[in-house]
Amino acid sequence: MTDTRRGFLTIAGAGLLGQSQPLLSKFPAGERRRESNDVTFLGEGDARHGPQGWQGRDDTKYLNEAISQLAARGGGDLVIRKRHFVSSAVGKLSLGLDSITAPSLEYAIRLRPGVRIIFEGGGGIYSNESTTSSKMKLACFGIEKSDGQFPVRISGGTVSGFFVGIAFTETTAVNWLISDLTITACSIGILGRTFEQCSFRDIYLLQCCAGIVIGGFYRYSLNEYSETGGFADKCLFSNIRSVLDCNLDSRAEVIDKWFDDNVFMTIKNTNLSGPGNSGPARSFPYTGICGYGIRMMSRYARPNNSNVFDILSHANGPRSAIHIDAGRGNSAQSIYTENLGYADWKRRSFPIGLEKTDPYLGVGKRMPFLVKGVSSIASINAQHCFAERVTDSAWLGSADLSSSRFAQNSVAR
User: Fold this and answer.
1) What are phi and psi of 112, to 5 degrees?
2) Closest CA to 110 of 65, 75, 150, 72
3) Which Gene3D superfamilies does the UniProt record give (predicted)?
4) How many whole angstroms separate alpha carbon 280 and alpha carbon 277?
5) How far is CA 391 from the centre of its chain?
C-alpha cells in the first residue's frame, strides 16, 4: 500500500510521526525511532508536547505543518496523542458574503481535504490560555472556502477552551463525520453555515454557552427566499449530550450579542428591500444562541429538512434542547431534558417569563418549547424544566413531564 493511500502521520504526545525530513528536522536529533513499512514513530522523550504547554508552549505551527504534509501527499490520518496546546491564529473565516469587508473569525488549526484527525490515548487540543490574547476570538478547527466540499473526519479526544470548537462559515459541509469528541469550555461548540448529509455521533458538549449552531448568516440585503443564510439537510445527530452549565447572565449576553453583530446582523433588517416589515429575511427574528443544545436558524426562510435526532440529552441551560426556525420532515427518537428554562439552572431559580426576562422573547414570555421544529418525537423526558409548551411537533409518543412546569402540557398543533 502506497504512502498516498495510507498517508499516516502521527503526532505522539512527545513528537511528530512521519517520513518527511523537513518536518522531522524541527525536532531534536537523537530521538529514538521505530519504523514499520510506511509509518515512522518518533520516541516519546520530547517534553515540548507535555504539560509544559500551559506554561507558554504553542503547538499551532507543528500541527498545521503535519496536516499540510498529509494533504500534499494525497491525504491520510493524523493521529494526535496526549495534550497539545495552541494559541495562534493561522487564518480567518469570513462571516459574511464579502470576505474582504465582512466580519471574520480567526482559527488555529486548518482542516484540509483528505486528512482525517484521530485522537488517541487521551489526546486533545487545548487553548493555551497563558499565551492566547484575551481579545482573540479563536476557533480551534477551521476550514477554508478554497478547500471546497470535501469530507472531513474528526474522531476521539477533546477540544477545550476556545471561542469556537469547530467552525466552517464559508463553505457547505458535505458528508462530514464528527464522532467520539468532547468539546468543553468553549463559547460555541460547533458553528457552521450549511450541512448536507453530515453525521454527528457521540458528541459531548460540556460547559459550552451554545452547543451546535447552524445557519443564521446574513448574506445580502434582498428580502427574498435564499439558501445562502445556511441550513441543515439530511443530517444525523446521534447520542449528543449537551450539559452546558449556562445561565442567562452577562457572559451569555456578550456571546448572544457577538453572534448578532457579526453573523445574524439584525441591524441589517432596516435596509432590506422588499415588502414592509414582512418577507423571508424577516420571518424568523434572532433569539440568541446561548443555552440551546442544537440551534438551526433560517435567516432567509430556507427550511431545515429531514434531519434525524437519534438520542439527545440537553441539560443546565436557559433555552431549548432543539430549536429549528423552519423545519420539514425532521424526526427524533429519544430526547431527555433537565434544568431548562431558568436563568439560574443550578438553583432552578428565576424562571424565564415569570421572574426573569429573556431579552429576545420579551416580558412575561416563557421559553416557548423544549423542542421546536421536529415533526415527530418518539419519546421525551423533561426533568425540572419551565416552558410554555413541550413541543410544536405534530406527533409526540411517550412523555414523562411530571417534574416540569408548562403553561400548556398539550402538544401544539
Assistant:
1) -130, 155
2) 65
3) Single-stranded right-handed beta-helix, Pectin lyase-like
4) 10
5) 24
Q: CA-to-CA distance for 198 and 307, rounded, in angstroms?
A: 10
d(CA 4, CA 273): 51
State the average pLDDT for the chain. Answer: 83
**Contact (CB, 8 A) for 80 and 123:** yes
290 vs 179: CA distance, rounded Å: 23
Q: Is residue 271 packed enough to be buried (19+ CB in 10 Å), middle (13-18) or exposed (0-12)?
A: exposed
- What does the angle CA 361 – CA 366 – CA 372 come to, to the nearest 5 degrees? 85
DSSP for residue 37: S
Average pLDDT value for residue range 329-348? 96
Instruction: Give residues with Cβ within 8 angstroms of 12, minimum separation 6.
Output: 41, 42, 44, 49, 81, 82
Residue with cell string 498545521:
64
Determine the average pLDDT of the residues in 388-407.
92
In sign, the C-alpha dihedral spanning 259, 263, 264, 266 is positive
pLDDT digits (tens, 9 = 90+) for 258-272: 999 999 999 998 888
Q: From CA 207, how far away is CA 290, in angstroms rounded?
A: 11
The pLDDT-based confidence of 93 (bands split at 50, 70, 90) is very high
* Cα distance between residue 318 and residue 386, in whole Å: 9
Mean of pLDDT values over 110-123: 87
Mean pLDDT of 200-226: 95
* C-beta of residue 312 within 8 angstroms of C-beta of residue 335: yes
DSSP symbol at 263? I
Task: Report CA torsion sign: 75, 58, 104, 280.
Answer: positive
In Å, what is the CA distance from 120 to each residue of 79, 275, 314, 334, 413? Answer: 7, 55, 27, 30, 47
Residue 397 has pLDDT above 60, yes or no: yes
Q: Is the pLDDT confidence value at 131 over 90?
A: no
Candidate from 49-58, 172-181, 215-224 with smallest mean pLDDT: 49-58
CA distance 403 to 413: 23
